[in-house]
Design brief:
mainly alpha; globular; 141 residues; DUF1289 domain-containing protein; DUF1289
Length: 141
Amino acid sequence: MNRIKTPCIGLCSTVYGDAVCRGCKRYDAEIIAWNGYDEARKEAVMRRLDGWLAQAMQGRCEVIDVERLLAGARVLGVHGGSRAFVHHCAYEVIRRGARVITALEDYGIGVLPAVASLPVDELRDVLDQAFFQLAVQASTA
């Protein structure tokens, strides 16, 4: 069975009162209830996160080769790397590999001209900020 794992990255900020976690971008209530969610509910949360990541990546980078992305995710130890949540997988590859990856293309990720001059760790920060802003905006809508 292919169970959906938690998107937690161990940087939870909801313990400090944030309504949206700065690490995984889930809402505080989702973090608390995650282990009680059925697979369909977990998948719905993951699809929402993947959608926000697709928006955050827009104009910055794109998945150009899913097979290379998934292989790179395995090499970096990215958990939950799958075709179902490809943008989330790409984000985790960038996040986890920011200090060791020199060519994102080797991991199936193309960098677009708007951010082509950024090192991978700065691209990671740009994506993370855009991802967080989308989560915060949705939480207040």
